[in-house]
Automatic annotation (TrEMBL):
Coiled coil: none
Similarity-based family: Belongs to the fluoride channel Fluc/FEX (TC 1.A.43) family.
UniProt KW keywords: Cell membrane, Ion channel, Ion transport, Membrane, Metal-binding, Sodium, Transmembrane, Transmembrane helix, Transport
One BP annotation, GO: cellular detoxification of fluoride
Subcellular location per the Swiss-Prot or TrEMBL entry: Cell membrane
Gene Ontology MF: a single term: metal ion binding
Keyword tRNA processing: no
Name assigned to this protein: Fluoride-specific ion channel FluC
Length: 152
């Protein structure tokens, strides 16, 4: 890999991270009015679980690609966009805040919901990605010489 390639890949991570962070900030701002700061932090839970699903989906879909763009897609969308969208630091901060305020049950529910919800969402994303990859493989096998698949 040349230094030019390295700069391009770094730029993809930066671009994706900026877009992902803006998406998370927008969701946090939109949901801020729905909580009083003492309940479950729905915005962070939503972005982390949704991000886990999207990362599972992405990993499975691009695992079946063999083209050279695969690495760059993962850097842009996985490391960049979803890395900026999801937020471990906010999870850790909100858990610490709940624990310091003596809201132990809330902290336990939030931690469990994030970890278990994220694991389940990742698994569902992998399954969805596998379905997409298999459908794409079926369509590619059915394509004729003109690139047109059979009509259904």
């Amino acid at each position: 890999m040349t230094s030019r390639d390295g700069l391009i890949e770094l730029g993809l991570v930066v671009l994706g991270g900026a877009v992902g962070s803006l998406g998370r900030a927008a969701i946090s701002a939109a949901l801020a009015a729905t909580t009083d700061g003492r309940g479950l932090p729905f915005a962070a839970l939503l972005v982390n679980v949704t991000g886990a699903f999207a990362l599972g989906l992405l990993v499975e879909v691009i695992a079946h690609r063999s083209d050279p763009a695969r690495r760059r897609i993962r850097l842009l969308l996985g490391t960049g966009l979803l890395g900026g969208f999801t937020t471990y630091s906010l999870l850790a901060g909100e858990l610490a805040e709940s624990l310091l305020a003596g809201r132990y049950a809330l902290a336990a529910v939030y931690a469990a919901a994030t970890l278990l919800g994220g694991a389940l969402a990742s698994w569902l994303g992998l399954l969805a990605g596998r379905g997409i990859a298999q459908a794409g493989a079926r369509d590619a096998r059915g394509a004729g010489p003109q690139g047109a698949g059979p009509r259904r």
